Structure formats: structure tokens, C-alpha cells
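LOG
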Amino acid sequence: MPATERPGRGTLVGPWRLTLCAVRVFFSSSASGTDVSAAAAFRVIVHPDVKGSQMPRSVLSAIFLKQALKWGDGRPVVPVDQSVQSAVRRQFSSDVLKQGIVQVQVYWQRKIAAGQVPPPVKTSDEEVVAFVASTPGAIGYVSPSTTLPDTVREVTVVD
């Protein structure tokens, strides 16, 4: 879906409007894009209070690079990352952020120098699930084989 530039008002991507301080989230229940997570090596999970069932990859990238800071209802977005040692983090960085681990680390070194804090890092899928379940507005990713409790919801990543 092509992006439309709107001077001073962010970028409109399908039903998504991105700005540096907010992401307006209108998840859709219907299949309105190509599912890129079906064969992926990760599952994206959110706190149950986060609305919707699908998320464009571009929005997911903006969230994890902390370029989108709020959900559509105004609540803070709280991304949580996996360890740089994990295979799921490598796959997520490649598929979603379109960067390798080293490039993402360099990005965060620059942001840290400018006073921005990267997402917290957890060392296992279980820790990510626990963080997302207990943190309103949280979003994370886990290995596809991870058993998900009722305290989190999976969202489908679409192009």
C-alpha cells in the first residue's frame, strides 16, 4: 500500500497515520493485506487492551524504532525487544526493521546519545510474554513455537 505524504500531518499508510509522537491504530479483523508473519520465524503479541488483529509491517517497524509512541487511543506504546543473541531477534530485525542487529545497535547508540531510551530487552520468550501481559500498551515478539496464554493476544503482520 503506497504511503501518502501530508505536510505537517505525518504519513498516511492505508488506514494508518504515522507521526513521530503518535500512531493511530485501526486494526482490522478482515484480511486486507498480505500476511507476512504466516511463514515468519516470530509471532507478534500485544497486551489484551490493545485493539485490533492486524498491523502493517511499517507501523511495527516505527513502533520498535520508537518513532511511533502512542496507540490510536492516546495510550503509550511499550515495545519490548529480545536479546541480540537470539535467533528470533535477528529474524525480526531483518524482516520488520529491514536491518541487521549491528545496524539496529548503531541506530540506538545514536538515539541514546540524543537522550532517547531503547525498548527494554528480555532474555527469553517467556519473559517477553510476561512483560506484555503485565504492561498496558505493550507489544513484543516471540518464537513461533511459544505457547501464548490468554493474557496476551497475537496480531498478524501485513504488508
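LOG (cont.) second protein
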Amino acid sequence: MGHRVKLLPTFQTPPHSMTFPILLTTTVLLIATTLVILRRLFHAHGERQRTALLSSGHHTSTNSLKESNNTNPPLIVGFLHPYCNAGGGGERVLFAAISYLQHQDPHVLSVVYTGDVSSTTKLPVTKSEILKRCKERFGIELDGTKVEFVHLKWRWLVEDSTWKRFTLAGQGLGAALLAVEALWRLVPDVFFGEDR
């Protein structure tokens, strides 16, 4: 006659004013966790890329760095700057920082991750073209033996034309993916990121 049914406590949804911060925090944590996991997964690949960069004969920068100090490998400092050949204020800061590093420590190899392409040929801009423009535009002369440029193919992910709606969110996601591509190509000892 009297079976009592136990009611389970019901889940109460948070008020609408709390939904967005919870969603935003969860998204940020998810992206950060994903990047940490990807960094660990790419470590072995990055070490192979690093070894190839430091041991290849066509990179004069690494040869001169190895000759000056055979016991310690050079410190690789990476700068994510998808538009390093644009010629603006951010680029001046980038090249001034690289120049500072070159003058302060001769055992630093600066690597710039860029997506710059030639406007005429649509091919990646060469190291000599970037260094020439840096000298002409800013009056900063860099030692080409202590700087390398790694071309990124996914730069379109941070361009506003890619994201017709939710532009800032899309560019933020694009910047994270671009950083993943940069780390896939070469894992530096120190990494500075900048997106457009």
C-alpha cells in the first residue's frame, strides 16, 4: 500500500548572469589544457626539428654559433610574429628586441615565426628580403647568422577577412592554432607570442 518513492534532487541551472562567465572560463581552460597537451605531444617532433636546424650545413647561423661554443648548444628564442615584414611599430619592437639579444649574448639564435608572403610571387618572403627591409625601414642591422625565419602556412587564421562574424573570437582561436603550428615546426627554449 505505501511504497514511498524517493525523489532525486533536481539539478538547478545557474542564473543567466552566471552562464557566460562559466562558459568563458571553461573555454579558456579547455584551450589552455589543449595547448599544454599538444606541446607535450609535439616535444619529440620539436626536438628532431631543433636537431636538424642546429646540425644542418646550410644554416650559417648555427655553424658560427657552434664554432664559438662547442660545449653548449645555442639558446633558441622564438618570436611568433605572423606579419614581421609589415614595417609598422610592432615590427620595430620585434627587430629591436632581436638586435638587443644579438648584442647581449652571442649564443642566442633568434627564430621568427612568420607568415609573410611576397605580394607579387605569393611565395614566402626570404630571410635576406626581411633583413634588407628591416635595415631600410628601421635602421636596425641584424646579424643574419644569428636569426632564422620559419614560415607559417596558417597565417590566414588570424586575418580578420577569415572571420566575417565573431571576428575577435575567431582570431583568438586562430592565434592559438597558429602557435600550435609554430611549435610543431620548431620548439624554442623561450617563446614569445604576438598576434595581429
